[in-house]
Amino acid sequence: MTQLKIRLLAVISIASTISFNSFSPIYANTPTPANQKTSCRIQIGEAHISTFLEKGGAFKGVEVNAYSICNALQRKTALTVRIYKVRAFGDRLIATSTTNPILESSSGLEVPNLGTSARCRSNNSARYYGIAQGQTVVDGQLITEAAVKSEEIRPLSCSS
After folding, report:
1. Long-range contacts of the stretch 123-127 (C-beta < 8 A, 24+)
2. What's the pLDDT tens digit per position in 56-97?
């Protein structure tokens, strides 16, 4: 009789452990708490000569990197980066790229766009800057992030 009680007690404790664990929260998919306001921002870097492209032997090029950063999980992020060359009579768009919102890399707390670059045609000095803007889905709501411009515009030994 005692062994039957022990087995019954074991079955009950295992069953209760399984049922309690099925109600435990999954933090990765938990929406932002109601008292915490969702905030997203874009961080954009300065235009620079890409060491990655040069080291890889591809070509010498100017590059601008940007990130979409949120305090909650973002999904389906489309982060667009544009590179402009400063000219006397109006700046010229020389490169643009957008992250693919379908890819897994377009989800997370921080989504990078590291693929915007333009080939240098000569070593003459020119000035460049980047502008980034994006759209993302957080907690089921579409958020449009305001456009952000590179803070510093410096001359680079690269003319496109």
Report:
1. 123/157, 123/158, 123/159, 124/157, 124/158, 124/159, 125/155, 125/156, 125/157, 125/159, 126/85, 126/86, 126/155, 126/156, 126/158, 126/159, 126/160, 127/85, 127/86, 127/153, 127/154, 127/155, 127/156
2. 667 788 999 999 999 999 999 999 999 999 999 999 999 999
Please give, one letter per residue, the 3-state secondary structure of 1-58.
Answer: CHHHHHHHHHHHHHHHHHHHHCCCCCHHHCCCCCCCCCCEEEEECCCEECHHHHHCCC
User: What are the backbone angles phi and psi of residue 91, rounded to the nearest 5°?
Assistant: -75, 150
pTM reported for the whole predicted model: 0.74
Helix/strand number for the chain, H first, E second:
2, 8
Residue 57 backbone class (left: φ over 0; alpha: ψ -120 to 50; beta: rest): left
